[in-house]
Amino acid sequence: MIKIIIDHRERPSGIIKELIKRGLEVEEKQLEVADFIIQSKTIDDKIVSVGIEKKSLNDFLNSIADKRLIKQLMNLKDNFDIPLFILEGNDNIYALRNFHPNAIRGMLASIIIDFQIPVLNTKGCKDTASFLEIIAKRLEKKRSFSSLLGKRKQLTLKEQQELLIETLPGIGSVLSKSLLSEFKTVKKIINANEKKLQNVKKIGAIKARKIREVIEKEYM
Questions:
Q1: What kind of architecture, by CATH, is found in domain 157-216?
Q2: CA-CA distance, 22 to 135, in Å (whole number)?
């Protein structure tokens, strides 16, 4: 069983008690960064660390006001392979304090977009403990990305031809079909000069020239 390392200040939250109830191995420590740390191995046997910062709704708002959240997020990114952020609470966050809703939305957007840290919302300590349990068990399993993706449907010859022509500059799925309908084969499209390419509707001089450049220019 993977061990979950928990900051000792989380003891009053009830999460430690909930995790022990679920039979998980828990170690309390004074953590400098994150509230929870879970370590595992990747499919190629490398150690990977998951750092999780948890905040109640009120603490989240306080940390926006005093600007400590930014530093915590930076530390989370710098110290862990997989950083996660848990926002715990079931109340309406926009009604708790005299905060402009866009300030809250902006910070959440910054966490997800700027810091690229996933945000999980949990209802309370039991829900948070359940998430931690699921994460720990997911990390414990041997993971194969190919099995998660499943088998891709094999493309037909027609679809392969269309996809190949779509890679030419300015050519989407519609023009790809138009070019193939006009020239019949990929080879004839590749061999067509600018004037012949312009016979196809919506392919002007500029687009035709760019297509020929991609085909003719030497690879550097």
A1: Orthogonal Bundle (1.10)
A2: 13
> Which pLDDT belongs to residue 144?
53
Residue 81 clears pLDDT 80, i.e. is over it:
yes
- Residue-averaged pLDDT of the chain: 89
Domain ranges of the chain: 3-143, 157-216
Q: Residue for token digits 């035709």?
A: 208
Class of domain 3-143: alpha beta
| Complete DSSP assignment for 137-162 | HHHHS---HHHHH-PPPPPPHHHHHH
Q: How far apart are CA 163 and CA 84, in angstroms?
A: 37
- Give the other-Cβ count within 10 Å of 175's Cβ: 18
Q: Helix (H, G, I), strand (E, B), or coil: what is residue 30?
A: coil
∠ CA 64-68-71, nearest 5°, is: 120
In sequence order, what are the residues at sequence separation of 6 or more whose Cβ sits closer than 8 angstroms to the Cβ of residue 43?
142, 143, 144, 145
Averaged pLDDT for residues 41-66: 87
